[in-house]
Amino acid sequence: MPHPIMFSDDDPILARVRTIALALPEATEKVAHGRPTFRCGKMFAMYGGGEKGSKVRRDTALLFIPDPGEREALVQDQRFFVPAYVGAYGWLGIDLAADSEWDEVAELLDASFRQVAPKRAIAALEEK
What we know:
By secondary structure, the protein is α+β, with helices and mostly antiparallel strands. The chain has one domain: Aspartate Aminotransferase, domain 1, CATH 3.90.1150.30. The chain is 32% helix and 27% strand. It is built from 4 helices and 6 strands. Strands 1-2-3-4-6-5 form a 6-stranded antiparallel sheet. The longest helix is centred in the last third of the chain and has 15 residues, at 102-116. The radius of gyration is 14 Å and the shape is globular. The relative contact order is 0.20. This is MmcQ/YjbR family DNA-binding protein.
């Protein structure tokens, strides 16, 4: 039985995340577990998810793989949370709103992308 779709294509926050994520070299979008995921071979971001250890759903959250050197600082920031399922693998989440700091979101997506992208995609990113 497939997962139910847990997002709306006309969500303006998702539209902004999509624009940033899909601008990265070779990035693609695929719906998995009912949510949009962004990949470059491997998944580097997901839109929406739950919080680890609770039943709280965060439908406007961005789940991402933080830069290992910045993970501890991000965990200390109240805006970030450990997501269900992927949190065990080092992922973090941040709940987004229309007034989010979109330069920061772009930096988080860039760092996450660099954790999984092949060298050719990272080289293409650096040529931009």
